[in-house]
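Discrete fold record:
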Amino acid sequence: MALIVYPAEGYDSFVSLAAADAYHASMGNDAWAAATVGNREAALRRGTQYVYAKRLLPEALDPLHPNVAAAAAEAAQRQLEGKLYRDIEQTSGSVIEKTVGPLTLRFSPASEAKPIRIPVIDDLLFGLTSSGLGFGRIALERA
């Protein structure tokens, strides 16, 4: 199934296959070109889902900001490597408790499975999302 590229109605990718190929070639990413067309297209769809889930601000989409396209291409590469979305096993973890006099401290061991953070995508999307603090940019004006 061919990609439907933003801003077309029903789009499933922020970036075309040709644009993603050019992006990865310019970044020296030979592994991208080695993947099949079908796998690259599927990765672009998943990469777009990942970037879209970051809660893009309207100005990031109209028109599409070049950093959004770059972030989608980077996310697609991580998808091909199996690093973008991976299941994280929830562990109940035992609670460790220490009482000293009238104080009781309870600790829960940190889980080894932590959500992945991809700094290059975070940096590309800086200022274009409302994620993080839960709100968008705030314009301040002097009275």
Observations:
- Helices lie at 17-26, 30-34, 37-52, 58-61, 66-80, 119-124.
- The longest strand covers residues 96-100.
- The chain has one domain: 17-124.
- The chain has a mean pLDDT of 86.
